[in-house]
Amino acid sequence: MWIYEKKLQYPVRVSQCNPRLAKFLIEQYGGADGELAAALRYLNQRYTLPDKVKALLTDIGTEEFAHLEMIATMVYKLTKDATPEQLKEAGLGAHFADHDKALFYHNAAGVPFTATYIQAKGDPIADLYEDIAAEEKARATYQWLIDMSDDPDINDALKFLREREVVHAQRFREAVEILKEYQGQKKYF
Ligand SMILES: [Fe+2]
């Protein structure tokens, strides 16, 4: 169960209408290494992870939904005042034809989200290594987005999100060490 707080995890400001930047940011909305994939991956994997690390997946999976909300806000604010012509020029013509200005879970290239982006192996170490890789890939994507953006307000929020991916990766690495230590202990029955 969750309690919804009516505020973003970190404020999202936008300097100006910029559908071209929005098209790139959609990668973190419905892309393979995006926030939806992260949230669904962790909140699904947690059931078969040992109790020692289960809560971590709940914490991080929940936070990823807060990040998804931030990305949605960015995309919405960057496109809400755009004309159809501007959307077309930004490469969002196909999106506009199908969705108008509604958001949709696809990647920057327009490929719809698919559950095949994520895994659940049932092996805690395998799943945690996938989670570490997911965080590193999300961090890299945020870096590429920051490199392409010239909007200082958007970059401020993107830098916050990039740092959270670094923290998540560290926490998953700690979880691997906790589990390895636990599995290495002799058990007496
Ligand atoms: Fe993350």
Offer a quick outline of the entry:
The protein is mainly alpha-helical. 65% of the residues lie in helices and 0% in strands. This is Manganese catalase family protein.
Structure overview:
This protein is mostly helical and 189 residues long. Helix content is 65%, strand content 0%. It contains eight helices and no strands. α1 packs antiparallel against α4, α3 packs antiparallel against α4 and α4 runs antiparallel to α8. The longest helix has 33 residues, at 152-184. The relative contact order is 0.19. The structure holds fe (ii) ion (FE2). The site of fe (ii) ion (FE2) has 7 residues, from α7 and α8.
Major β-sheet annotation: none
Helical content class: 55-70%
Unreliably modeled segments: none
What is the count of helical runs?
Answer: 8
Helix/strand-derived category reads mainly alpha
How far from one another are the termini? 36 Å
Number of strands: 0
Which SSEs are present, and which pair or pack?
Elements: H1 19-25, H2 27-30, H3 35-45, H4 51-79, H5 84-89, H6 93-99, H7 124-148, H8 152-184
Fe (ii) ion (FE2) binds next to helix 7 and helix 8.
Core attributes:
mainly alpha; 0% strand; 189 residues
